[in-house]
Each structure stands twice: as structure tokens, then as C-alpha cells.
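Input.
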Amino acid sequence: MSEKETNTQQEQDVSQLLQIRRDKLAALQERGQDPFQITKYNQTHHSADIKAGYDALEGKTVSIAGRLMAKRIMGKASFCHIQDLKGSIQCYVARDAIGEEPYADFKKLDIGDIIGVSGYVFKTKTGEISVHAESLTLLSKSLQILPEKYHGLTNVDMRYRQRYVDLIMNPEVKDTFIKRSKIISSIRRYLDAQGFMEVETPMLVPNAGGAAARPFETHFNALDEDVKLRISLELYLKRLIVGGLEKVYEIGRVFRNEGVDTRHNPEFTLMELYQAYTDYHGMMDLTENLFRYLAQEVCGSTEITYGDKVIDLGKPFERLTMIDAVKKYAGIDFDAVRDTAEAKALADAHHIEYEPRHEKGDILNMFFEAYCEENLIQPTFIMDHPVEVSPLTKRKPDKPGYVERFELFINGWEMCNAYSELNDPIDQRERFKAQDAAAAAGDAEANHTDEDFLNALEIGMPPTGGIGYGIDRLTMLLTDSPAIRDVLLFPTMKSVDSNSN
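Output.
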């Protein structure tokens, strides 16, 4: 049989199996037992709770609900496994216990059906904690066929597109997203305890600023205006600092019109916080304590494993200036580089590409990216970035070509970005002008002048520390996930024709 004939036969076989499921549903409906008419079920326990509390629950009646994942028919008595939110548990189903007709219905159930089981807790002869069914209810009929446990949902693209099936078939995937939820709730608990206030700011904005990124654009029909999806949370949160809210944070989606790779998704979750009357050193202390807290809360230890690396979040984080990092890993001292022409000559000698508009600070940042990032496995704060790549940051008083900024690197990844925020409206206007010029020269990621934000700064903003954390990348680190799509329930995917899927 040719490959084409084999595929055709398989499609016919699947079609017949799907029809059988629909026929079973139709038969139930004709008998007045339509599962889709059931509106609720009194679920008293989850599988893991029964196993953990067996000593107290032995012989007691419980009601569980979940998806039928395995079934072994053995004459007058059978076994099945029910999977719920917290795991799975075995059920013993006997004809004499539930009745002849319900038992006949049980035998017709399909893998994937959602059922409720009420019965008492016991241990089988092999010592497995189980539920001895006394009644069984079909709550929802599965009209599709689940993949086989070990041979089915292995296509990575399909796993991302059909995350609902991925969650059913792969317990470790469900665990990742439970941990993601715990990470976010732990962040909120930590910041709330530190006196921060959670706020919400606009997603549709006239001027998408606060980061170097190309925005998505759309049209607001009611106002007949073009607007952009936000690329950052920064400029609105700073307006709140101006308004006297001294500690604010937001956890929300931002959108950047860029490519997709293992660490980038065009829409992602960002957390930004701003604190009045502190600087980037205060942000470093807060970040170090927050990361330790999250590791302990989510992973149970400040020592975590990512791939084959052991990362220690319990030790004091290393602190290096960007110049010191380039000196350490590239052997070049940019303090000795006199001007942009000399920096570009170094870039040429080291095969680092740049554009004519780039200045000395841009070249330093390129050397850092080329030589340093991959070496920063243990937590390291990289401080004092060049002003050219930091348009919203306060300059260092003793070194005005550099700014009070840091990025935290772990596992070679940038985990967060923090500033002593620029609160000089005159300096900010000049930097916006430079960004406007860069945009005019072809930089699609440059910021544009935001007059309302400048007005807020002219009202007066106190000295402020600010920071942004990528929640997705943080989740990757704490769940040992190799790609950002593994920690996004519904990652951005290229559309497919439903008829060809």
C-alpha cells in the first residue's frame, strides 16, 4: 500500500471512530440522558487531596470529577483513571455497586469523556489509593480522540496551537502554568508587603514610548484616530509618581512588533514598578530580594537548576559596570577609547557591525552583547550604561556620558532593566529630540517626543527608581523551560487554514 493509500485509510478509520462517538451521544440523548444538559456536579475532593489525606478519608465518601484517561474492563468489575486539576486517581467500578444499567453505560464510555464519580476511599490489594464507585455520572461527552499518551502529541507546533490538549496529555505542562500563576501571585504578595500599589494604565496609546521597539498600529474608529499598542508601561506609571503615588506597579501585556524566537514573543507580560525617593541601587536591593523570595516560594530553594546549570540565587549578586564587563570578557577598556571614531575602528577590528549614526556608547553596548552576555550565568547586575542607549535615564553626576541604569543577567539572559529615572524635563526634551532624529534617520524602534509626559515632568517628579521585569523569561528560568512558547498558554503563531489543519 502506498503512503497516500495508507493516509487515506487512516483518515477513514478516524472518521469512523469519530462517528461512533457521535452515535453514542445520540443514543444517550434519545434516552433522555444528554450529558450536555447537566449544569453542575458536587465535586468534594481532588485526586491529590485524597491521596494526601488518606488516613482521615479512608472509608469516607468523596465525589471527584475529571477526564477519563484509562479504562480496564474485567467482566463484572473494572478499573479506570480519572484526571483532574491536581493529578489522577484510580476508581474501582463494580456492577453490583453501581447497578447493571449504569455499569453497561460505563463500559461504553470513551477515553476523554468527563465524568463524576462518587464513592468511598480505600486501598486495593496492591496498595493503590482508590475510590470505590457507588455512582457515576457522564458530565460531558468527548467527540474527539485524544492522542496516545506516549506517541501522540509530539508535534511541537500542534502542542502550542492546541494547548488544551497539551495540558491534558502532559502533566509537566500543567505544572509549568500552575507555577507561572504562583510566580505572579508571589510577586504581588511581595510588592504589596513592601507598600506598593497595583495600578492599570492604557494599552491603546497615541505615542508608544518607554522602550526601543517597533509598535503595532491600529485605528480607533470612534475617535477616527490612529493609535498604537503600548510597548512599555513606563511613561504612564511615571505620571502617577508625579501625581504623588510614591510606590506603584503594573503587571500587564505589552506588544512589540518584532520577530519570534526562543526568548521573544510579540505580546508578552511585563511588570514595571516605580518608587519615589530612591535610585537604581535601591532597585538592585529590591530585585535581589524579590528573586530570592520567588525562588523559595515557587521552587522551594534559592538554588535552582536550568538545563545542566545550577544557579545560586542565595548568594549576593555580582555587580559590574558595563565598562568593567567588557574589560573582563573582551579585554578592551572603553575608558581609554577617546571618541566615536576610535570605537568604530575597534568594532571593525572585531567584526562588529554598526550603522553610521551609532556613537561610542552604542559601540560599547554592542561589544557587551557580543562578548559578555553569554558568560553571565550566575546573577549579575550590569550597571552604568552609555547614555546613547538609555534615553530615559538619569546621568551619572561624575561621568555624564553614562547613566544610572542596570540590567540583571541570569543564564546569559537579560532578566530586568532598571534606572534612576530621569526627572529633568529640559534634559528629557533634548533626549527626545535625539530620538526623533534617530527615527527620521530610519530607526523604527526610536522613541518619539511625548509632550504630555514632558508636561508631567515640568510639574515635578521626585527622584525615582524604576524597573521592568519580563514575566515570561522569569517563568522560563524558574520552570526550567527552554523556550518562551513553553510558558505562554497561547503563544503567537502564524495562522493556518482550518481546512488544511
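The first strand starts at residue 61 and ends at 74.
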